[in-house]
Amino acid sequence: MIIFGTIAKILNSKEMLSYDCENCNSKGTVTFLFLARYFHIFWIPIFPTSKKGISQCSHCKQVLYANEMSPKMKQDYFMASAKAKRPITHYFGLFFIGLLCCMIIFIVYQNSVNETEYLANPKVDDLYKIEKNDTYTLYKVYEVKGDTLIFKTHSMSTKKYSGLSDLLKKYKNDYADATIKFTKDQIKSMQHDTNSEFGKIYSIKRD
């Protein structure tokens, strides 16, 4: 079960201003209190949501919101609110999401660089994930002869791209004995032309 929701935390204001209470006439008992809310998952801060403040009398506990304060107190309230900063932990989720996005971008970029290298310099056992006629299968480089690549095709196929992971896990070495041949130009067309008669290359893996 995923536990999520919002939590409010009290923020410390750098300016500890105090005022006389108009309700109970106590001297210097009214101070500002600021609450910041953040969205959490399993109590881990993901991103900040809102920040609100009040004034409260420590004697009679009267609470005033900004629109109920005197003009002078309201002015001081907004100045104190601006200085009541959220702790950096409230932004943990945003930092994590940003880091995750950077990692994904780097992985995608690195895979693109690697695949360009694999296409330029193919090697035996390079694994090609192929889509053809609305099915997905695997081609493994069996031999490289000049500009010609000779493949062994996997004996099974799947209707979903994600199904290729199962083929790799459960039927890793289940390839047909017969081979097929493609020139490097044909391989390039399979990478860039989604309507290539030879199929489409989704990715290239090298162990």
From TrEMBL:
Keywords: Membrane, Transmembrane, Transmembrane helix
Keyword Membrane attributed: yes
Domain of life: Bacteria
Membrane-spanning ranges: 88-109
UniProt name for this protein: Zinc-ribbon 15 domain-containing protein
Organism (species): Sphingobacterium anhuiense
